[in-house]
TrEMBL record:
<dbReference type="GO" id="GO:0031080">
    <property type="term" value="C:nuclear pore outer ring"/>
</dbReference>
<keyword id="KW-0677">Repeat</keyword>
<keyword id="KW-0853">WD repeat</keyword>
<dbReference type="InterPro" id="IPR036322">
    <property type="entry name" value="WD40_repeat_dom_sf"/>
</dbReference>
<protein>
    <submittedName>
        <fullName>WD40 repeat-containing protein</fullName>
    </submittedName>
</protein>
<dbReference type="InterPro" id="IPR001680">
    <property type="entry name" value="WD40_rpt"/>
</dbReference>
<dbReference type="InterPro" id="IPR015943">
    <property type="entry name" value="WD40/YVTN_repeat-like_dom_sf"/>
</dbReference>
<keyword id="KW-0539">Nucleus</keyword>
Length: 354
């Protein structure tokens, strides 16, 4: 297992549990902000917070604004509606959905639109995803419903595009284009949807792994904008795999359980992989060596405290190995050497790669 050189690494203790975090799209060339989904276990209070990030040594997070919700956050996403106008979307375990519009001048929460509980889903919204321009969301739930939500400054409109009546449970979602998105669920399954072809998914993959992996769950999906035919997924038993729509029944296993083998030799984790993202931090030499047929480098975080980069055909590169779960992470799009992640033990880590 390789170890990547870190130029800077700091833990920033928090007074509350951090369920998720994201870099906010830039408001100016000099300001950097982090959006945090915070949960206070003493008061049962949930809030969405915007912190200013000063990447000094040590880095400093300064709370700028906060918005209180009535239920714990299940999914957190950000997008850039227009230049210097980001928006934040959050779903809750009670089933409500909230879209917030930060003021570009002082990052205070200027306005908020929402859909109340038990409207979109019968239970929790397990995952939502925002389109790149923030014009629409897709929400999924364990109740088997898939909803599309149009985002406007004055309100949210939604329509249900599928309802399995609980026969299928969805746990992850990700946009691939303005008309296409992917979902994931139980059995390490994936589904591909195209709004131009309504009625249900247009392609499906059902995980047919041994060693009990068929009972696993896909927790996170990512799709690279330049390779939208390949869907990246992370889930139970340390499983990380790519689903290529050109070869829909031949998953590319990057880590975890492979067909016929209990554990891949390159496995980085044996627990739940909570989040996966394509890693955009690559040197010029690495970029030149990546074939169009190979899966792009992937970053993961896991229940057993691993933050790592996985490259197809290579040994995983470990960034962090913590004594507690790493629940969420994000790579700064403008500075992909910078990564933030949230620890189960009420802290945020900020690291910069050399």
């Amino acid at each position: 297992m390789a170890t990547e050189t870190l130029k800077q690494f700091h833990r920033l203790p928090q007074s509350t549990y951090v369920d998720a975090l994201r870099f906010l799209p830039p408001l100016s060339a000099f300001d950097r902000y982090v959006v945090v989904a915070s949960f206070n276990s003493d008061s049962d209070e949930t809030s969405i917070e915007i912190h200013a990030l000063n990447p000094s040594t040590p880095p400093i997070l300064t709370l700028q604004s906060s918005f209180t919700l009535s239920s714990r956050i299940s999914s957190l996403k950000v997008a850039q509606k227009s230049l210097q106008n980001p928006l934040i979307a959050a779903s809750t375990f009670a089933g409500s959905l909230h879209v917030l519009f930060p003021n570009p001048i002082d990052v205070s929460f200027e306005s908020e639109v929402s859909i109340p509980e038990k409207t979109l889903h019968l239970g929790p919204i397990t995952c939502l995803d925002l389109q790149e321009n923030g014009s629409a969301c897709v929400s999924v739930g364990e109740d088997g419903r898939v909803n599309l939500i149009s985002v406007g400054d004055s309100g949210l409109d939604y329509r249900r595009i599928f309802d399995s009546k609980g026969l299928v449970s969805y746990t992850a979602s990700r946009w691939a284009s303005p008309t296409e998105f992917a979902t994931g669920g139980l059995g390490n399954s994936l589904q591909w949807w195209d709004q131009r072809r309504p009625g249900g998914p247009v392609s499906q993959f059902k995980g047919n792994w041994s060693q009990g992996a068929a009972s696993g769950v896909v927790h996170s999906i990512d799709i690279h904008p330049s390779r939208k035919h390949t869907c990246l997924a992370g889930g139970s038993y340390g499983t990380v795999f790519a689903w290529d729509l050109r070869r829909p029944q031949q998953p590319i296993v990057l880590s975890g359980i492979d067909a016929g083998e209990p554990m891949s030799s390159s496995s980085i984790s044996e627990s739940e992989v909570w989040e996966v993202q394509y890693d955009t931090f690559m040197s010029a030499s690495n970029r030149a060596n990546i074939s169009s047929e190979r899966v792009l480098p992937v970053m993961i975080c896991s229940e057993d405290g691993i933050l790592a980069v996985i490259k197809q055909g290579d040994e995983p590169t470990e960034l962090l190995a913590e004594n507690c779960a790493i629940n969420s992470f994000d790579i700064d799009r403008q500075n992909p050497s910078d990564v933030i992640c949230s620890h189960e033990w009420e802290s945020i880590a900020f690291l910069t790669r050399a």
